[in-house]
Amino acid sequence: MTNLLTIIFLISLFYIAVSGRLFVCINLLIVQGLMLFGIAFLSLREINIINLLVVLTETLLFKAIILPYYIKKMVIKNKIKRQVSPFISGFSSLLTVSILIILSFVLGIYLQNAQLKLIYITAAFSGIMTGLFLIVSRKEIIQHIIGYIILENGIVLLSFSLGNKTPMAVNAGILLDILISILLFGLFMNKIAKTYKDLDIDQLNKLSD
Amino acid sequence: MGLLIYIIAVFGLATFVFFVRKQTAQYIAASVFCVVQLTFNYLLIVRKDLFNEIFFRVDALSIIFISVLSITSVTTIINSFVYFNHRRENYFRRGIYLASLFMLFACMCGAFLSDNINILWILAEATTLCISMLIYHERNEEALEATWKYFFVSTIGLSFSFIGILLLNAATNVSGFSSLTFSSLMSEKILITNQFLFQVSFLLIVIGFSVKMGVFPLHTVCIDAHSVAPGPVSAIISTSLMNVGFVSVFRFYQLFAHTSLSNWMSHVMLIIGVLSLLVATVYMLKVDNYKRLIAYSSIEHMGLITIGIAVGGIAYFAVILHLIIHSFTKAGLFYQTSQFVRIFKSKHIEDTGGYFKISPSGGILMLFLFLVIMGIPPSGLFFTKLMIFQSLINSGYLWLLIIMLVLLVFILWAFGKNIFHILFLKVPPAVQECKPKVSFWENIPQYFLLILGLFIGLNPPVFLVNIINEAVQYLIK
Amino acid sequence: MTVFVLLPLLSFVFFLLPKKFQSIYNVLLTVATAAISSYFAITVISSGSTLNEDLPLVFWGNQLNITIDLLSAFFILIVNFTVITGAVFAIEYMRMYNEKKRADLSLHFFSFFWLLFSMLMVCMFHNMIAFLVAWEIMSVASFVLVIFEYEKPEVIKAGINYLVQMHIGALLLIVACILVYNATGQYTWDALTAYFYDHKNIPLFLLFFIGFGIKAGFVPFHTWLPHAHPAAPTHISGIMSGVMIKMGIYGILRILLHVQSDLLAIGIIILVISAISGIAGVGNAIIQHDLKKLLAYHSIENIGIIGIGIGVGLIGVATNNDLIAILGFGGGILHVLNHSLFKSLLFYSTGSVYLNTHTREIDKLGGLIKKMPHTAILFLVASIAICGLPPFNGFVSEFIIYNGFAESMIASSIGIKILMMFAMLSLVVIGGLAIFCFTKAFGIVFLGTPRHIKIENVKEVKWFTLFPQYIILTVIVVIGIFPILISNLFFQLAGMFTHKTILIPEATMLNISSISRFALLFIGITIIIYFLKKYFIKNKIVERAPTWGCGYTGNADKMQYTASSYAENYSHDMDNLLNQKTHYKTIADEEIFPKERTYKTHSESLAEEKLFLRITEFLKKILNRLAFVQTGKTQHYIMYMFVLLIALILLTIFNVI
Amino acid sequence: MRATGIIMILIASLVFPGIITRVKSIASGRKGPGLFQPMLDILRLLKKGTIYSTTTSFIFKIAPVIYFSTILTAAFLLPFDNQPGLLSFKGDFIAFSYILALGKFFMIIAALDTGSAFEGMGASREALYSMLVEPAFLILMASFAMFTGHTSFYEIYSSIYFGSYIAVFVGVLAAYNLFQIIMVENSRVPYDDPKTHLELTMIHEVMVLDNSGFDLALINFASALKFVIFGTLISNFFFAPDTSIYLGILIFLAIQFVFAVIVGVAESFRARFKLRNNNKAIVLLAPISILIFLSLLMLLTNQN
Lengths: 209, 477, 657, 304
Prior knowledge:
Chain C is mainly α.
């Protein structure tokens, strides 16, 4: 069952990589959040119930509800243009993502051990790498944030595989990250949106040698 | 217990300055903070037991760097007020500035002390928060850009190190949140089950923390942050914050120092260090902005330090001492830059000149700071560099040493050329006619730091030597 | 000793003193320092035993101690002498800079003191680390002194050039010291013996030699000298050229005391490099228009002569022929003293000229002898001495070195014979070129009539400025006429390098005494003839008329020979070696009414242009290529991280690291 | 007894220039002045007063004196048949050439002292040529020193020995080189023509344009003396170790006479070099000396 969810997670990565519209990406974030919720629900058996509840609510709330909603609001508020303009074409990005997934699979083979399930590692690392890939390959800051959130999802996935061992660590880390991200991303997004006409990274290169 | 009190006190002060926006109130708060910081530091040295909490542990390393931090914090606060008064800063901004400054200090102290890996990571993340506020202080486009970049990139970097920590967590079969501590991992020797897992986690951690330590690859945003932040803040970034990064990396390095990874680790550090040195040289030859120039020199020193860690031996000692002296000197340099900005109304080196004429005391100060930072006697960095070279040759890296020397010579040339352009030559006419004044008293804290650095360098007091040896003894043995 | 250590504290007083007392205080401080250190040195020389003292200073937790042996004592003495004269000379010279701020002067004199102190320390320390520190402080202090007129960009340029080159030298020394330490486990000069005993000698020696040679100014490491000396105030140039570059010689000698094997090879290396330095130095000196630049090149030449002496001595030691060893080393070390005397004197008198005329351009000057006769005499004597002509001191040292050549031509193997012949050839050429150069310098600057500048209001410098120069003059003459007074010391010094106490051969002593007979004879004859002339023209008509100008006497001073035209027939032939640049736009055919034109020549140092600039430019280009990191795009920054991560992981997987 | 040398040199110098001029005039088909004419001119000059240029300083006054005394001092170093000179020490040949250089130094700066374009020209040329010729002379002497194993004139000459025919060849070569050196040192044809009348082409003569009276007398006498001194350097080759003093004097005078005649003949039958070529011609002398050095080295190695 968890494997199925993980597979869906991976597929969503593909979809995000090729999708040309912003809201699709955001909706996919919701999907990923739900997947994570399911995975958490199914995999974290051994920890005590409160802890589990915390994790579950946290995942559901932040990953699946608050973040996407917040980003949507931001997009509407700042009149960010809705279509994505990557440096590279959809096909090649698809290719890249699949390469990254293979790479993370190979990495997983090397890395797996008692706690680290291969599938988890693969999914997690492909999430992380895809996030990075989005950040590197997209111009818009909003896309960077989405990429970052995908990266975070990957980390969460990775942490679930260890969740049985040290759940609090996971939560603490994730929670702090999410908080910071919401807080400051929003803050700076608005600032930048105020300062520059559209949220394009090319305008942010005054500081260079 | 003590730590809790300290943190509560600092938080209180921060909230106080944030909400009470009166000049006197801020002065009082600042002085109170200095008192708190120094007392905390003092107690830390004399009564370790007060501070050994569950997640925190007082050891030689943390004592050293917290002492450095306390000294620089006082000077930083003084310089911040100088900076405010010359810019006629409004009290709202002053409030935010001071509040985040205090918080920053608190977080860094915590990071130095923290024994639990997760806590260390969380505090490092927290420093990012505070420092972003400080970088953004001047509220112009560049500030916004630099802040955005710094924040975004360092968040990503730190999340990478978080992955590393998770992997480490998986690799070592300790369980429970509080159990993943340096002391426990160091006390029962790590058995390397899956070496590759450890290696990957170490790589992730080091590369993630490179954003704080200011070495390749993530030094880039550090530079931007330096160049837009107010002088005192830049000073903090390239002294205490880099020390935080160093300490974190150093602690992780210690973990595997006596395992089968040690050789591999030293190679990794060597690569990173040399790359940083190279990048620093390249850009010091290129930049035309003196704050960036000095920032790159920090990168250079961090690169040297990384190389020092890699080669080990007597270099461990040298590295710590190097960091201490570098912190004091570099802080002094950055404090001076806020004077330059004020006088020359520009951060470009072409627009500067004749600072020595404008303020002789500051000029002499700059001259000496330059000598010290370049490791020319009577600078202590001379000896630390000597030791690093010595162990480089000892471990058979003569070829590498030659490359480094070439780079260092270029660095001297570039840095000297620009610094002397600022110090000497003619005062630009535009500056000349508005008759800038610099009072002698502004330089006093910097003189204090300079003399401190010189003294420590020329004749390190015995207790310092002992404590440094204590800090590195785990690696030596 | 305690007093000596406390002296540096007094140097901080400069920052409190008002302008006009500073130079006086400087003299006092210098004299005090010199007196104390000379006391030690003289005790060492008189007793002939090495002095070992613990300083009441702790340095990195261990006691500092100084060791003064004969070599150190000798160098300490010459340093003190020259620096005192420089300090006294500075009193009037620094009045030129009245518009400077107080802090400038304070910093200047502060570093002046530290230059002296660090030079003494360089001579005294036998602990390598302490030595290196003193060495670096010496470079830094002199650097600060050089950039005294820091408003001028060219001064700053020269200063940075100087600082960087000194730093390179220091780095080489550091590496050498570390090598010694890693081999022997201690940072002292005596450890060198152990090192040289069971390692290859030449590599380490070369490392040291280049490190010290950059300071000393051996070709091709001389490129800083011609820039730094014109930039610096004149008394500083005098001191730097007089004694500071000799610290490099000191270092080389210090190393040579410990070298164990390969002496012959090392000697030949030194000999060849020195011969090249000598010829290149004087050869470039001739075509300079800037008087101080000319003198700077002559420092290179004299360093070359010193090196030649040392090389001959080493060859003597290698072929264990004590006579040659003594002649070579004795001559070389004696020339160290001599050069410090006449070169500082030359610089000081140049300074007096600059003080009054505010120009160093030889071609602008002329006829100064009528306005400042004392300075003229001083410069003349110094020039004769530096040309190595009797009856002054330069002749003595060169004569001894020549004897060294002759002896080793007679004694040693055929290869050495030929080498010696060429060395002698080079020394002769050096002598001839020096005469050419200094007849030009003295003749154009002091004789004839002024060429461009007006000299009506030029006046002789004050007595207290002349006084130290006359002291130097007397020393020059005394050494020149009675070398026997000091020759013992030098042969003792030379004996140190043969590692056995050998009595000075009678023949050599005889020579030394016969030099003085020779000089006295010459002087006697001169005096006799002079009085003869007086007697003859006592009651004859002695009238004055304009110079014979082929019947044309108008505007004669514009028609005079200038420095350039004087050197023309030399530089014309030597063109390709001197790398002289001409700035002149030739008249094109269609240019019927040519505009006003200027003709200007200057010379670039060959080694600098063709060797160092190319290397540095090349490296700079490479480094500039690498400057693609800081693009300002966040994606790139993150990409670097990712790429490095992947790269390191791959390297790890494939066990590269 | 050791003073014989210096006395003979002084005596010879009285007639030496006379002989040259006489030979030249005979060669050009004239009767020519008496042998002592040059000396008489000098005497005449001694009686005259002097004119000093307004631009000159004491350098100009002192220079001739020093010039003369340097040459006289140099004369003291020379041996005469088999006894050393009044002042003889190891390496005196170095002192010899350096003291002469001192004289030149003063003549040059005296010329520059007058501030005239011509004399500056002469000074520059003189300086250059003497600089170029010095190596040749010293290397020559050094090679003799190397060959004989002694470093003073006296010992060199007393122990010099030309055995084999190649040695004779070397000796001839040496004599030729020495002759050329002498020509340069005394600025005679082909390097310079004392009798020229165009300042632009003069070397030595143009330097003394402004000297008059006693100074000029000193200078002229000094150049005569210089000639004889170098003549002595040649004549010393011909003293066998056991020639008695009287025979020595005879040989000396004969050699000087022959030498003077040769100079005269050479001067009257040779054209002078183009000025630009002088440099090359003089530089050529040094390699010849080196050649001599090497061949002597060869001889030496053959002997033992």
